[in-house]
Amino acid sequence: MSKAKGNVDKNLSNVVDDLNQVDAGSHHAQQLQQDTNDRRHQDALNHDHTEDLSHPKTDAGNH
User: The pTM is what?
Assistant: First the structure.
């Protein structure tokens, strides 16, 4: 993962990097889109889904 340099927005710098790439046809465009999809999928997998332990969920069916 790249880190933002100084006060530069990391997302905007990634967009600039993507725009600076030269497309070589539909196959290359599909590969670039798949790379974006893979990054989004990996980000979703890495998202922290920890529960709030100070407010545990209760099972309504066990009352």
Answer: 0.41
